Each structure stands twice: as structure tokens, then as C-alpha cells.
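Lab notebook: predicted structure, single chain.

Context: the supervisor wants predicted structures on file for every construct in the current expression panel, including those that have not yet been purified. This is the next one on the list. No modifications to the sequence; it matches the entry in the shared construct table.
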Amino acid sequence: MPDDFKQIGEVFNEDAFNKIREVVSQSEVVEKFEEIFPEFKKIAIAKKVRNGILFLRVENSVWRSELHLNKLIMIEKINAHFDKKVVNNIKFI
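Prediction complete. Output recorded below exactly as produced.
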């Protein structure tokens, strides 16, 4: 291998790989939200996950209150779907 080429392990350290894995996992939450919660299809849209916080756009204040009351159950269901902790909080927007 020529000297000017580096192996991927030399370019990225383990922390960089962990950060990439975290970003991918968070984007999968948004992508898979309707699959995890098909019953919310018409009332809530996953917008993004940042620092473990899922941002959900909710149709109205009544649904926002209802979902807020069930937030812990939703977080558990999301994390169970991915077999790891990818969401630790939900913000309703």
C-alpha cells in the first residue's frame, strides 16, 4: 500500500466511530418512528434526535398533553426497538 494512503483505523479513532454510530442510530429513530408507532401516523411526526432528545411535531395541544403523559412508555418502546438506549427524552413541538 503506498505511503500516502492510510487505513481507515488511522484516520478515525474509536471515539469518532462511536459518534458516527450515535448519529446513525438517532437518524434511524426518525426514520423508523412510524413503524414503531403506527397509531401516531396522523398526529405526530418525528423531526430529529439531538443529544438523545427526540423532537416530535404534534398535531395539537390535546395530543401533545396525551403523549407527554405517556412519554416514558414511548422512550422505553423506542429503546427496546433498537435494543439500546438511543432516546432519553422527548420534546413535543
